[in-house]
Design a protein that fits this description.
By secondary structure, the chain is α+β, with helices and mostly antiparallel strands. It contains two helices and three strands.
Amino acid sequence: MLPPARGKVLDMDNTNTGDLKMSKISKALAVAIIGMSAMAMSPSQASAAWTCGARSATGSWGVGWSRSIHRARRIALYQCALRTPRGYYCRITTCA
């Protein structure tokens, strides 16, 4: 048999939550801070200066985004090559 617990005991019927309550304002503030930090950490495709697309004769495709047109073209060709069967070529179709 275990000895009786000492100190604070958590009440499982949720009646002992006096110091765990959060106001609606602090909940909204916490959600806003988490949301804004998540948006700041995720890279945005809208910030890329160049978007290039590549296609092969088999219908495979690839898209690349970058601030450098050369890098965007390379990414698009690489993505297309991953989807293209051996022996076929990918060509850049658009860059904007």
